[in-house]
Design a protein that fits this description.
This protein is an alpha+beta fold and 188 residues long. A 7-stranded antiparallel β-sheet has the order 1-7-6-5-4-2-3. A hairpin with an 8-residue loop joins strand 6 and strand 7.
Length: 188
């Protein structure tokens, strides 16, 4: 894990890390209390070659040869409200042109010190209510991305430390969500 900003973190030389931080920055600009957002990740050079009109709309037609692989996040339609996220993700199948996908979602979490006080046997709705009322809860925005080839990256931003210099990055920060996103690329 590392603190990261797009311009200063050496990990940001990784195209997937750059894409995650770009999405985190975009979500940050929208403020808190936002719905989950889903993004397709496409190879920028391929997008320019195969979809020049879309590349132009996205401001990617500046020309110039890129020596490094870059990924362009393309926000998808709004996620259906009320549908459980895992059920929605299970309905997604990406076309071959999509190299990866990312999701940004806000959740409440408890620090590890509070884990021992969680009541046993609560249903999901009861547990969510219990966490929401806990005095040590923290709001977090998670941006998780996966590549078709198995690459993963995540960025976490706490509401109470809402600053680009306080963003944590790492491949294994949100493994369950990464698994659910990776399953959208599974072939039967």
């Amino acid at each position: 894990m590392s603190n990261a900003t797009p311009g200063t973190d050496p990990l940001a030389s990784n195209p997937l890390t750059r894409a995650v931080l770009e999405i985190d920055e975009y979500a940050s600009g929208l403020g808190w209390d936002q719905p989950a957002r889903l993004f397709a990740l496409v190879d920028t050079a391929r997008l320019r070659a195969e979809e020049p009109g879309l590349a132009s709309q996205l401001g990617l037609d500046e020309g110039g040869e890129e020596t490094a692989i870059t990924l362009t996040p393309i926000e998808q339609d709004e996620l259906p409200s009320g549908a459980p996220l895992d059920e929605f993700l299970a309905t997604i199948a990406w076309p071959d042109a999509v190299t990866g996908c990312a999701l940004t979602v806000e959740r409440q979490m408890l620090p590890p010190s509070a884990e021992g006080s969680v009541p046993k046997g609560l249903a999901d709705a009861e547990l969510a209510k219990w966490v929401a009322e806990h005095p040590d809860r923290q709001e977090v925005r998670m941006t998780v991305a996966v590549l078709r080839d198995g690459g993963r990256e995540s960025a976490l931003r706490l509401r109470e430390k809402d600053s680009p210099t306080e963003v944590l990055t790492g491949a294994g920060l949100v493994p369950g969500l990464a698994e659910a996103l990776a399953a959208t690329f599974a072939t039967d």
